[in-house]
Specification:
The complex is a heterodimer.
Chain A lengths: L2 E5 L2 E5 L4 E8 L5 E7 L5 E7 L5 E3 L5 E5 L4 E6 L8 E8 L9 E3 L3 E6 L1
Parallel strand pairs in A: 2-11
Antiparallel strand pairs in A: 1-3, 3-8, 4-5, 4-9, 6-7, 7-8, 9-10, 9-11
Chain B lengths: L2 E5 L2 E4 L5 E8 L5 E7 L5 E8 L5 E2 L8 E7 L2 E6 L8 E7 L10 E5 L1
Parallel strand pairs in B: 2-10
Antiparallel strand pairs in B: 1-3, 3-8, 4-5, 4-9, 5-6, 7-8, 9-10
Classes of the chains: A mainly beta, B mainly beta.
Chain lengths: 116, 112
């Protein structure tokens, strides 16, 4: 079984400040890990994914995440927050490797608020 | 990149009626799609796995007779909420498995 824990349901930062959203996972097999962003009443947009290649993954909109096996973590960061980053972020783990992505198990989500 | 189109984006229906939600994969073939439900301020919960040409696989606790899934072609999966009740009001989202784990735009269902 797999699980994802996102530490902090709400994170608030000032515009221009570092964004750090925490995600820890549990998996019995080497995982695929994902970060998604969701704006109100919209679907999920893929920010980035880890698929056992480079441990530091760069995504869209300036976000990146580092896979740390020893810490079972996949934290999402962005050096400088922008107002448009305000949204809800979900970390997810996949139950399959190879070339396809099976069932995704999601964390509870973290709402990011950006203050001017 | 790959695009998943979900329709409608929102729907309001009367209690007791049925609602069909479509999920289309554009420019690629999707043999497997997933359907999720998201209640307000909650995470996504997998409802079922839709497989082209075969029966869907439902997660524990999801009523297969209430949430009918049809995956008749490689580009289209549909979710029909039958005899809808207010407690079925939720945000429904589809996802493709390959080539990327892309999601549809979601459908906001409100049952009145």
């Amino acid at each position: 079984a797999q699980s994802v824990t996102q530490l902090g349901s709400h994170v608030s930062v000032s515009e221009g400040a570092l964004v750090l959203l925490r995600c820890n996972y549990s998996s019995s097999v080497p995982p695929y890990l994902f970060w998604y962003v969701q704006y109100p009443n919209q679907g999920l947009q893929l920010l980035l994914k880890y698929t056992s290649a480079a441990t530091l993954v760069k995504g869209i909109n300036g976000f990146e995440a580092e896979f740390k096996k020893s810490e079972t973590s996949f934290h999402l960061t962005k050096p400088s927050a922008h107002m448009s980053d305000a949204a809800e972020y979900f970390c997810a783990v996949s139950d399959r490797g190879g070339t396809s992505y099976g069932k995704l198990t999601f964390g509870q989500g973290t709402i990011l608020t950006v203050h001017p | 990149g790959a695009v998943v189109s979900q329709h409608p984006s929102w729907v309001i229906c009367k209690s007791g009626t049925s609602v069909k939600i479509e999920c289309r994969s554009l420019d690629f073939q999707a043999t497997t799609m997933f359907w999720y439900r998201q209640f307000p301020k909650q995470s996504l919960m997998l409802m079922a796995t839709s497989n082209e040409g075969s029966k869907a696989t439902y997660e524990q606790g999801v009523e297969k007779d209430k949430f009918l899934i049809n995956h008749a072609s490689l580009t289209l999966s549909t979710l029909t909420v039958t005899s809808a009740h207010p407690e079925d009001s939720s945000f429904y989202i589809c996802r493709v498995r390959d080539p990327e784990a892309f999601f549809g735009q979601g459908t906001r269902l409100t049952v009145v």
